[in-house]
Specification:
The complex is a heterodimer of chains A (114) and B (113). Chain A has no helices and 11 strands. Chain A has 114 residues and is mainly beta. In chain A, the strands form 2 sheets. In chain A, strands 2, 4, 5, 9, 10 and 11 form a 6-stranded mixed beta sheet that branches. Chain A has a 5-stranded antiparallel beta sheet with strand order 1-3-8-7-6, with no helix packed on it. In chain A, a hairpin with a 2-residue loop joins strand 6 and strand 7. Chain B is built from no helices and 12 strands. Classes of the chains: A mainly beta (114), B mainly beta (113). Chains A and B meet through strand 5, strand 9 and strand 10 of A and strand 5, strand 6, strand 10 and strand 11 of B.
Chain lengths: 114, 113
């Protein structure tokens, strides 16, 4: 089983602050996805990154894929209470295993206080 | 939009009971998955299915089985529920083109007493 390490595990900030969440692995991802999960709901896909060095933006969220495709980051600018939730990274690994499975990190629980 | 529906949001069952968790998707996806989510452990794959009547074990299949008799429906079965199976169970359906997208249901929070 491939492992994805996410940090920090918990993050509590004030509205308007910036933050960065990290996702790392010792293995190379074929692609990586970020999900957000709100309480009582299932995870919802935010973005997929495929190419090393790729940067994608989704409003105030910026996603970066490392050049070596072993790490990724999610940066939120001017966080708002509506950003509160569990952020999960999930990776497909090109180790020869089945492409049907997605391996998840343990998540970063973000709380944005008004 | 793809919709994945899990039949129950909350369930309370007794130890030793046989438990069925149902999941239905409406987009004709071939691939469906069952995960459990626990604090500090993240999402762990129990079983998945890539076609009707086909199934494959995930990372933690012990104590579980699955059934896929129709393409749209994927059931998770706890043969004899135990307290360590108390968890949030998430079903997902997967689209493969043009980008792989997993769509999750809202989850079933199962408590085994």
């Amino acid at each position: 089983t491939q492992l994805l390490e996410q940090s920090p595990q918990f993050l509590s900030i004030q509205e308007g602050e910036n933050l960065t969440v990290y996702c790392n692995s010792s293995s190379v991802f074929s692609s990586l996805q970020w999900y957000r999960q709100e309480p009582g709901e299932g995870p919802v896909l935010l973005v997929t990154v495929v190419t090393g060095g790729e940067v994608k933006k989704l409003k105030r969220l910026t996603f970066q894929f490392g050049d070596a495709r072993k790490d990724s980051s999610l940066h939120i600018t001017a966080a708002q209470p509506g950003d509160t939730g569990l952020y999960l990274c999930a990776g497909f690994f090109n180790s020869g295993g089945s492409n049907y499975k997605l391996t998840f990190g343990k998540g970063t629980l973000l709380t944005v206080n008004p | 939009d793809v919709k994945v529906t899990q039949s129950s949001r909350y369930l309370v069952k007794r130890t030793g009971e046989k438990v069925f968790l149902e999941c239905v998707q409406d987009m004709d996806h071939e691939n469906m998955f069952w995960y459990r989510q626990d604090p500090g452990l993240g999402l762990r794959l129990i079983y998945f299915s890539y076609d009707v009547k086909m199934k494959e074990k995930g990372d933690i299949p012990e104590g579980y089985s699955v059934s896929r008799e129709k393409k749209e429906r994927f059931s998770l079965i706890l043969e004899s529920a135990s307290t360590n199976q108390t968890s949030m169970y998430l079903c997902a359906s997967r689209a493969g083109t043009p980008v792989i997208v997993y769509t999750f249901g809202s989850g079933t929070r199962l408590t085994v007493v």
